[in-house]
Amino acid sequence: RGLLSGKVAVVTGAASGIGAAVVERFLREGARVIAVDLTDQSPGRPDLLVIKGDVADAETWRRIADTARAEFGRLDVLHSNASMVVRTPAHELLEADWDRQLSVNLKATYLAVNACVGLLREDRGAIVLSSSVHALVGVPGHPAYAAAKGGLVSLGRQLAVEYGPEVRVNTVLPGPILTPAWDGIGEEDRLRSVAATAAARFGRPDEVAAAVTFLSCAESSYITGASLVVDGGWTAV
Ligand code: NAD
Prior knowledge:
The protein has six helices and seven strands. The protein has helices at 17-28, 58-72, 95-122, 143-162, 187-195, 205-216, and strands at 8-12, 32-37, 48-52, 77-80, 126-130, 168-174, 227-230. A seven-stranded parallel sheet has the order 3-2-1-4-5-6-7, sandwiched between helices. The structure holds nicotinamide-adenine-dinucleotide.
């Protein structure tokens, strides 16, 4: 029996990087998964339903909640992971790009909870939010991303208290994890990020998936409102 045997989980940003690794690990742990992404994903299977949609759109979340209810009759885990970034200093950032980053990276979690917390409460579920070390340390060129990721840490704590005995809510803060999000980022920036970690290397998506799995399953039953850095020691250096 896996750590998530019998559980139903929603994972957003499931087509790439950390989200894809979480889907793979959740399936291995016995969960049935609803995998959500803006981009196309490989077709589902009996324990994997695929939904194409924008997490910043309330209609996507209605479809996700309806699917969980209709296909599985329950929802135990919500991993809000989808994200995007426009790398530009604040004085050059277009207002539309600020709004989009706040919507995808922060508002989407409010929409998720709004649509899904009823189901999660029924099943004493767990929510895991995906923040970033950018919530804790300044990195040039990420004003809206950092604001949204910082907001998620506060939102996670607030939701943990709000839904207290029924739903646990925790937040992971990854450091530099080698995923397609790093495509197009130059060697100098990569080396600087790796040098900022005590581990002196990039993290792997499966190393974040392990933390997300821990916070999603009964192994973390007394942990809620917590922030877990998965950053190779970036914030310890
Ligand atoms: P990624 O770019 O590899 O994957 C993100 C996925 O989200 C993509 O498949 C994309 O299509 C999807 N997505 C983007 N906008 C969406 C939307 N509006 N609706 C639905 N899907 C959408 O990213 P990743 O590196 O795997 O990052 C996953 C999470 O980890 C993100 O929340 C990211 O901020 C966080 N994180 C990553 C790193 C890192 O170094 N990779 C560091 C800190 C935090």
